[in-house]
Amino acid sequence: MLRENITDLIAFAAVARERSFTRAAGQIGVSQSALSHTIRALEERLGLRLLTRTTRSVSTTPAGERLLKTLALNLEQIEAELRRLSEMRDTPAGTIRLTAPDFAVEGLLWPKLMPVIQAYPDVNLEIIVDYNLTDIASERFDAGVRYGGRVSEGMIAQRIGPDVRLLCVATPAYWQAHGRPETPQDLMDHNCINVRLPSHGGLYAWEFEKDGRELRVHTPGQLVFNAIGPMVAATLDGIGVSFMPDFYVADHLTSGRLEAVLGSWSQPFDGLHLFYPSRRHASPAFKLLIEALRYRG
User: Per the count of CB atoms within 10 A, which of 63, 87, 166, 294 is most buried?
Assistant: First the structure.
């Protein structure tokens, strides 16, 4: 019965408060004749007269006054709760779940997201480090991070970093002891630090390109990791050569702790993107994250 009457009850409360069909109709956005019909239908269902109408005024009957008092209290509570919900809509809060490879988290995401966490204590981040091509919808992630060329079809993709180059790097002492390769094939004579990626079905083959010629090299070496962080540590210890995104080792290259070779074989490609399903009504927290990560050149 409530489902049938709720709209009619709101209409009755408007007429009873305003003591005018004309003013109440304007308030709730219906015609005066439609409002009059609504009130008559409500009275017929209840079997009670709720309003006394004259040509000059409208007043509540005893039954109508009793109903108005009950409605006024509950409608006020509902309106207050709706205001609170509206405030929640406009205030960044809640948990956002992301999936990204470790080098993206350390080298790109965290520097941009740390200020967000500090400025908005009600925003929570859950970041899952993963190299799989995760289905973010089925795994209930809000968004993921991949290179632009690997974003799933049908997703919205937003660039969060510049174009990337993969560089062969080692310590100056390593290069001095073992010589610098002049071609990618020369890496076969070096101790290369490899990475095993589930998205590639095994050991990642180092990819090179020069003058339109593409080359993939399955490099030999003593060490294999499944994350880039330990690879950098081993490279800095002088164990061998690794193949790294330029932004991830930029500080080490600037300081001279690492040196890159085969630069002419390292061509830039589409950088990291945040991808997510279409969200017509994204939460303030998610909008905040999108803006924080947006690449601005």
Answer: 166
